[in-house]
Write a structure and sequence with these properties.
Layout: H1 8-20, H2 34-40, H3 48-57, H4 68-74, H5 76-90, E1 95-99, H6 102-115, E2 119-122, H7 128-140, E3 146-150
Parallel strand pairs: 1-3, 2-3
Pfam families: Helicase_C (PF00271)
Subunit structure: Component of the INO80 chromatin-remodeling complex.
Subcellular location: Nucleus
């Protein structure tokens, strides 16, 4: 069983799971995910699956090793969104993009950074003042192309 976990695709899967796991709120575009920081640290890891991952693989690669281009080739929905956003940007449109899950907003943030689209993100962790400021910025600043919004 443990020998099977040494395959490179299993490691990528576990790192991908850590990337998209329960991370509420925005994070720095190139900053490591809190679970990967936890795996990389010498502190005890509380989740049994993460303990096993740490024991098998040791330190995981930093978030910067994530390949958004591969994500685009692996996801038909993201490919379609990519085509649509390119067209909308070429025609000087602006986009409101809603998601029920903050995990999806995390993925969309990675995509926005990859395409170098200027965006704002509003989710449940945003304060009332931040929400007001972001809405005002999106209304008045034409350089912001996408507004990522959580419906929860």
């Amino acid at each position: 069983m443990l020998e099977e976990l040494h395959h490179p695709w299993i490691k990528r899967l576990l790192i991908g799971f850590a990337r998209t796991s329960d991370c509420n709120g925005p994070r720095k575009p190139n900053g490591p995910h809190h679970l990967i920081q936890q795996i990389d640290s010498e502190l005890p890891v509380s989740e049994p699956a993460l303990q096993l991952t740490y024991k098998i693989f040791g330190s995981c690669p930093p978030m910067q090793s994530f390949d958004p281009a591969k994500m685009l080739t692996d996801s038909g929905k993201l490919q379609t969104l990519d085509i649509l956003l390119k067209r909308l940007r070429a025609e000087n449109h602006r986009v409101l993009l809603f998601s029920q899950m903050t995990k999806m907003l995390n993925i969309l943030e990675d995509y926005m950074n990859y395409r170098k689209y200027r965006y704002l993100r509003l989710d449940g962790s945003s304060t009332i003042m931040d929400r007001r400021d972001m809405v005002r910025d999106f209304q008045h600043r034409s350089d912001i192309f996408v507004f990522l919004l959580s419906t929860r």
